[in-house]
Amino acid sequence: MDDDFAARLNDQEQQRYQKLGRLRERGIEPFPLRAARTHTTHEVIEAFTRGEPLESVRLAGRLISLRDMGKITFAHLQDGTGKLQLLFRRNVVGEEAYALLLKDLDLGDFIGVEGKVIRTKTGEITLEVTHLELLSKTLSPLPEKWHGLKDVETRYRQRYLDLQASEEVRKIFIVRARAIAAMRQYLDAHGFIEVETPTLQPLYGGAMAEPFTTHHNKLDRDLYLRIATELYLKRLLVGGFERVYEIGKDFRNEGIDTKHNPEFTMMECYQAFADYTTMMTLVEEVYAACAQAAVGSLQLPYQGNSVDLTPPWKRLTIRDAILEATRIDIYQDADLASLRRRIEELGLKIEFHPTWGKMVDELLSTFVEPHLIQPTFIMDYPEEISPLAKKKPENARVVERFEAFAGGLELGNAFTELNDPLDQYARFMEQAEQRRAGDREAQQLDLDYVEALMHGMPPTGGLGLGIDRMTMLFANQSSIREVILFPQLRT
Fold first, then answer.
1. Does residue 211 register a pLDDT over 90?
2. pLDDT band at 224, cuts 50/70/90?
3. Do 442 and 409 share a structural domain?
4. Tens of pLDDT along 305-318?
5. Last residue of one domain, picked from the residues 111, 142, 173
6. Which residue range forms the structural domain that includes residue 99?
7. What is the C-alpha to C-alpha distance for residues 68 and 88, in angstroms, rounded to an integer?
8. Whether residue 125 is found in the same domain as residue 11
């Protein structure tokens, strides 16, 4: 087994493998069971700066630099909170430990050190080491620290190396974690309860998307990875909950680009006795809370622009937004043939779709969305592309729906939720017609959901916010793959 393993190693790995063997021959376990430490590097720096005496400190982390000067050696240890300089004196740490450091340890190895914290003549806070032990031997060298990983595919496929090489990459995921924590804190404080709904569903719905299909062997039936949590969460309002939310993964069988990953994270929440204007306020407040927690400001640099998240955000109807950008009035060219003719008359370069509603959505995505730099709610969408939203009383073709945008990114989607079971059934049947017309993303007929509505759902406002897009905005990243630890990649 060892010979077979060794044959797979390159020259650098072979050298480290031989060191591992020598360590074991001397009775040194290169992968001990446990590691003890009293402080992190950050805690040491904070405590020493405050003037606290640190006579006996135990640290654990990676050995990331080594500079031998004969009888003394300087090194740096890095843990999850930062790094700290180490000072090894041959006569202090002992001959055996000093030889271990110089002959058998490599950059990237995890070590444990104990000693006294001092400040060197150059002013750097340093641990003068009295005890050294190996905690985990690395067989493969880490990326060169100053240049990191240059190949983008390698960065994503071997994210563990990307994180090790780049503090900036690690900061992105700290921003993400802080934003999610702040979002939970806001929702919990405003009376929402966090719930979990099925990821495997017998019928997919709640969004305009194609699903991933899988098969349950025992039940001998196809199931779908959820494309949204919406229909299950609204069932809970029928059941008596008034404010619910879920943060979790959704899956859509769609293309991969800088804004889309087939597996992504959403927060969906639903509030009884509310409408889409309530959800606008919620979006403004949630984004402000998350931005303050994640980056400490509501003024964000994003791809060469400055985005100001301070409420209130701009409000603009989808009709006016498209008219301003393209000179097309979607309700004058109110059928597919008329809309296509108008697009061709104006010479607009756009992908064509099989339904009028999809063409309206494409006009928005192509000509409006990229220019929505400052936070904006695009509102009052066509009913045809909003089968789960309530119609406006004054115009049955328009529903109370908005999408939130900033930095040219779509950030979220919200409705005044449709709670009329008869209207919902009719909408599902309209969607079936659109599916027959070639729209593969049209909603399916969910009779169980209609039956739930027959038991009564209160007037409700609902919202979905994309966690990945939020992180892109906060971390100033133009690609969604930069804010997902392990994104899907083409083979």
1. yes
2. very high
3. yes
4. 999 999 999 999 99
5. 142
6. 2-142
7. 9
8. yes
